[in-house]
Amino acid sequence: MQRAASPFVLPQDFYLQPTLTVARELLGKIFIHISQQGVLKGRIVEVEAYHGATDEASHGFKGKTARNEVMFRQGGFLYVYFTYGMHFCMNVVTEAEGVGAAILLRGIEPLEGLEVIQHNRGANIQLYQLTSGPAKCCQAFGIGRVHNGASLFGPEIRMEGAPRIPDAHIQQTTRIGITRSRALVWRFFEQGNPFVSRTRPALAE
DNA sequence: CAGTCGATGTACT
DNA sequence: GTACATCGACTGG
User: Fold this and answer.
1) pLDDT tens per residue across span A101-151
2) How far is CA A170 from the centre of its chain?
């Protein structure tokens, strides 16, 4: 017996596609954390691609290390790293084993578990500030060091399919907060969504 | 509004 | 030492 119209978990093949393709197609998909606090769901609205082979800004550019080991696995894992002494950022690993590519989740529109998300982010915060940025997303969804290397098909973390966002609603720009490989136009977001971290010119110089 | 800057831990030179 | 895929508070116009 087939489950009735239940949303489907994205299959591993999805993550084995070229990283820029996955980044584009990840917009609109549903990120799920089945946490101790409850089920947290959100719709991905902003991402950035990082690709070890050609991208100096990628953690994987200089090869595999203890920190970035997860990036070099086959697609379908969560790569979580700690930065600036106080923040976590989460990525979706893409492509084949050994490539070293991932997609940073920068903006997630909350869909379920809003009370928990509000609690995780602290009191008296504007709605749009809950998840409009990579470290905000991790704090809101309770993602930290223990989730580095988690499977995206596991009991705790999953990604569900959703209707494709039309090209006309998607913007592509240079990435935020990096110094190397600044020219690469590898940031994707849903136009006009309040949970996008900030606005930028569509074409930088 | 825009620009600047401090917090604070870790990876890597 | 230095840089860092950030955030939020603060400054000045």
Assistant:
1) 999 999 999 999 999 999 999 988 999 999 999 999 999 999 999 999 999
2) 16
Chain B footprint positions (protein CB, under 7 Å): 7-13
Q: Which nucleotide in the DNA or RNA is closest to residue A83, CA to C1'?
A: C4
A66 CB-to-strand B distance under 7 Å: yes
Which among A124, A175, A116, A123 is positioned nearest to A143, based on CA atoms? Answer: A116
Separation of CA A57 and C1' C9 in angstroms?
A: 28
Scan for tokens 């949970």, then name that residue.
Answer: A195
A55-71 tens-digit pLDDT: 999 999 999 999 999 99
Measured in angstroms, what separates residue A122's CA from nucleotide C9's C1'? Answer: 16
The pTM of the full predicted model, rounded to 2 decimals, is 0.94
